[in-house]
Amino acid sequence: MVNSALPRLTFESRGLEQLDVAASKIIDFADGIRFWVFEGDMGAGKTTLIKEICNQLKVKDIVTSPTYSIINEYRNNEGVPIYHFDFYRLNDESEAYDIGADEYFESGEYCLVEWPSKVPSLLPESNFLKVSIEMTHDDFRRIELTRHD
What is the third-level CATH fold of 11-148? Predict the structure, then answer.
């Protein structure tokens, strides 16, 4: 059952030319929430969108996919950490515990999580933003944001 009382925003974005607008909308809609989960099929653009979000959050490091490392840590120009997770390659949720994901999640810093369905018991029950990305047609993506306050 979908909770219609949760704040939502849905919009369409076309490829790389509208990536900056999409990232800006997400940051604005998050309204201070720092734990974000990104859902979408392989190739939907989760990592590419996270790169632009990090750019707008003034990350000074090179943002890359943590597919093999599972977690990347970046710093913005004020030294604030931003943690980027990609749990796609996890075989078991215990692997996330082994790298201390729960400690990162409880840090209060930005945590941007790809493939959150791989770590369901680690995810917060509230105070997170869900970003769902769906390829629609041509180079268009439907992005749905749901704020779980």
Answer: Rossmann fold (3.40.50)
